[in-house]
């Protein structure tokens, strides 16, 4: 059974910088574009970087001992792909908001997670579950 795909539009300060980050570093294929926006294939989902030069402030909430950015997006990968991405980001010298780690260890919802900002200050989270049944565990 195929899952629905999500669409997310978000602000960036510079489209070429967004292309280098999402297309280059994260490996997202580029789709349609204009002088004001560009589509990316984000693990089968459509994300759209819209030119909006004014940055926003990043509010956080505490989650399992970490300050998690309230406004963020990301994707749930399988564990090998998450480890691969974490290694690629570490090798690239990405400055993590929350470094690669296991959250909620030994509890329902245990997950591998990491957070970082794109060049425009948008927070991204990539996570993985050893057991997919834990995605919505309480």
TrEMBL record:
Coiled coil: none annotated. Residues 4-129 form the VOC domain. It comes from the Bacteria. Pfam families: Glyoxalase. This is Glyoxalase. It comes from Phenylobacterium parvum. The lineage of its organism: Bacteria, Pseudomonadati, Pseudomonadota, Alphaproteobacteria, Caulobacterales.
